[in-house]
């Protein structure tokens, strides 16, 4: 590893800043993580209802196409021709019988197998492909595909464990709660380009500590408070996190505790009110009391319920200092028109200009700016909630789940440790 910084704590309470800025590390991530023993989120089944439906997506740096074939199978392959590498599919989504590369019209079926090579037999007895050329040897680079709860995942590696094991019991339970109990339908998409490293976003969604601090909207209007009940649950690899918060009636009486938590910041105004509070009064339609649940699955998937907003967030890294966040907003087949309207309203919490999440994008930008010209060798300090063991908590002000992310990142990247006290 070329890093100037070093990993110095086995509990991952220090993270060298180079991981966010070093182009060589970024290239290694594509090889060791996105093409490594992980399951990458590709799309949701409901986006491919018919034979021939396809979507274009990204796995790390790699363009990928996911298609539904005649045998009801889902297939994923690199969007790069087996002939001379051209990008084959340019549409974001659509329906096709086959995929033809624009350059020399090599043609592939919905499984990514090569089915046609123009002029393979020569023209007027001349030219053509050599006798040893066999189309079977020149299909597209296909991924392993696995599905759970309507989510389609792909892996370039044979080493990735069975998908359910990879997800872990908490993720399985949450996917069933959010995406299986009711049949999801896509309400729409948003994309956001955030000028920060993709791992900063992984930190952000595993960081309930910031929830009531960065997001003044949430605190001011009672969506999130430091007094709320909640916690985190991790899978056995510590890579996937489920964090959740529950708001109860008693939180309304906690103003003194909240004011104390903000003491010295000059940021808390208990008298602030919304002129039109409709946005914050949409009833929770799951009826289980969870105000916010964020399920983060290594390396690039987040399934978030924020009040009544349900969204799949997919990270598409674009370099050391840029990530595209692709949001798929979900409603449910069983929703009444009013419920759909409510979901459209609360969608304003999340997204590029969301009342809550615009600040997350800004926080990433500020970190990336802050570390760009920092003195070499620096590292993050992750000690909130304690150091040492990385384990579940029943409280929210913690950075333990971020350390869990880094432990798995470090292992998957095959990095070393120069332990210091
Ligand atoms: S590069 Fe695709 S057919 Fe030649
Ligand atoms: Fe946030």
Question: What would you note in describing this structure?
Answer:
The structure is a single chain. By secondary structure, this protein is α+β, with helices and mostly antiparallel strands. 21% of the residues lie in helices and 25% in strands. The protein has helices at residues 23-34, 163-167, 169-180, 198-205, 216-220, 255-261, 337-346, 358-372, 400-413; strands at 14-16, 40-44, 53-59, 62-68, 74-78, 93-95, 99-100, 107-108, 114-116, 144-148, 151-155, 184-194, 229-234, 241-246, 290-297, 301-306, 309-317, 323-332, 379-381. The protein has a 7-stranded antiparallel β-sheet with strand order 12-18-17-16-15-14-13, sandwiched between helices. The protein is globular, with a radius of gyration of 23 Å. The structure holds FE2/S2 (inorganic) cluster and fe (ii) ion (FE2). Residues 204, 210-211, 214-215, 360 line the site of fe (ii) ion (FE2).
Summarize the topology.
Blueprint: E1 14-16, H1 23-34, E2 40-44, E3 53-59, E4 62-68, E5 74-78, E6 93-95, E7 99-100, E8 107-108, E9 114-116, E10 144-148, E11 151-155, H2 163-167, H3 169-180, E12 184-194, H4 198-205, H5 216-220, E13 229-234, E14 241-246, H6 255-261, E15 290-297, E16 301-306, E17 309-317, E18 323-332, H7 337-346, H8 358-372, E19 379-381, H9 400-413
Antiparallel strand pairs: 1-19, 2-11, 3-4, 3-6, 4-5, 7-8, 8-9, 10-11, 12-18, 13-14, 14-15, 15-16, 16-17, 17-18
The protein binds FE2/S2 (inorganic) cluster and fe (ii) ion.
């Amino acid at each position: 590893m070329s890093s100037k910084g070093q990993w110095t704590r086995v509990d991952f309470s220090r993270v060298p800043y180079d991981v966010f800025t070093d182009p060589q590390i970024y290239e290694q991530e594509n090889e060791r993580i996105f093409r490594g023993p992980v399951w990458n989120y590709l799309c949701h089944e409901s986006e491919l209802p018919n034979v021939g439906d396809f979507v274009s997506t990204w796995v790390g740096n790699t363009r990928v196409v996911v298609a539904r074939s005649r045998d009801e199978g889902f297939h994923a392959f690199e969007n790069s021709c087996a002939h001379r590498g051209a990008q084959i599919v340019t549409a974001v989504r659509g329906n096709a019988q086959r995929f033809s590369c624009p350059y020399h019209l090599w043609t592939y079926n919905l499984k990514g197998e090569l089915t046609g090579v123009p002029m393979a037999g020569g023209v007027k007895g001349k030219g053509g492909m050599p006798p040893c050329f066999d189309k079977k040897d020149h299909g597209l680079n296909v991924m392993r595909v696995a599905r759970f709860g309507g989510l389609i995942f792909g892996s370039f590696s044979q080493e990735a464990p069975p998908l359910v094991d990879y997800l872990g019991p908490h993720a399985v339970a949450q996917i069933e709660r959010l995406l299986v109990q009711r049949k999801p339908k896509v309400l729409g998409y948003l994309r956001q380009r955030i000028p920060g490293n993709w791992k900063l976003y992984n930190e952000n969604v595993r960081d309930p500590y910031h929830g009531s601090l960065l997001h003044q909207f949430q605190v001011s209007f009672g969506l999130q408070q430091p007094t709320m009940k909640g916690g985190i649950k991790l899978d056995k690899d510590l890579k996937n996190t489920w964090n959740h918060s529950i708001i109860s009636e008693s939180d309304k009486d906690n103003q003194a505790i909240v004011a104390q938590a903000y003491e010295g910041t000059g940021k808390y105004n208990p008298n602030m009110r919304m002129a039109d509070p409709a946005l914050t009064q949409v009833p929770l339609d799951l009826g289980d009391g969870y105000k916010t649940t964020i399920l983060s699955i290594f390396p690039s998937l987040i399934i978030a319920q924020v009040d009544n907003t349900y969204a799949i967030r997919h990270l598409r890294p674009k370099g050391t200092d840029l990530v595209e966040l692709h949001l798929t907003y979900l409603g449910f087949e069983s929703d009444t028109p009013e419920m759909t309207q409510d979901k459209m309203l609360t969608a304003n919490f999340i997204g590029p200009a969301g009342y809550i999440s615009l600040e997350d994008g800004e926080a990433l930008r500020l970190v990336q700016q802050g570390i760009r010209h920092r003195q070499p060798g620096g590292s993050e300090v992750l000690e909130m909630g304690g150091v040492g063991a990385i384990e579940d908590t029943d409280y929210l002000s913690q950075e333990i789940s971020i350390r869990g992310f880094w432990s798995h990142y470090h292992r998957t990247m095959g990095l070393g440790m120069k332990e210091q006290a």
